[in-house]
Automatic annotation (TrEMBL):
Gene Ontology terms for molecular function: metal ion binding
Highest taxon listed in the record's lineage: Bacteria
Keyword Metal-binding recorded: yes
Lineage, uppermost ranks: Bacteria, Bacillati, Actinomycetota, Actinomycetes, Micrococcales
Name listed for the protein in its UniProt record: Cupin domain-containing protein
Domain Cupin type-2: 54-120
InterPro entries for the chain: Cupin_2, GPI/OXD, RmlC-like_jellyroll, RmlC_Cupin_sf
Length: 132
């Protein structure tokens, strides 16, 4: 199958030999202490992104913080009340929201059931500065 070449496309030769041995990282290996949240630091696994898989009870969620890179949230289950700067958004299952670098943000479970959110950090390491 032919592929199109775009001016923004990086040219490289694909290979059948990955530069690192592929692995499956068990969910339990990513769990933060006894919480239900998991943290994946991309640099540890040869990935260019990092993420949190958040699994929160009603009312729970991270307080205001910021990163020197963008963050994208994908709501998997539940309802999230997301603060981005001085804006308040409500996102449900299947919704996606993004915050740009350097903007205060946080979210809380605004529903009555569990909130499961994939928080994708556009960095191979996680850097957070908390408001409090």
């Amino acid at each position: 199958m032919a592929s199109a070449t775009f001016t923004t496309e990086l040219l490289m030769e694909p290979t059948m030999t990955p530069p690192v041995v592929p692995e499956i990282i068990p969910a339990e290996a990513l769990r933060i202490g006894t919480s239900t949240t998991r943290r994946f630091v991309g640099r540890d696994h040869g990935a260019g992104i990092s993420y949190f898989f958040v699994d929160n009870e009603p009312g729970q969620g991270p307080d205001l913080h910021w990163h020197p890179y963008s963050e994208t949230w994908v709501v998997i289950e539940g309802t999230a009340r997301i603060t981005i700067g001085d804006q308040l958004l409500t996102a449900g299952a299947g919704d996606t929201a993004t915050v740009q670098a350097g903007v205060w943000h946080g979210f809380k479970n605004a529903g009555t059931g569990r909130l499961r959110v994939l928080c994708i950090h556009a960095s191979d390491v996680i850097i957070q500065t908390w408001a409090e």
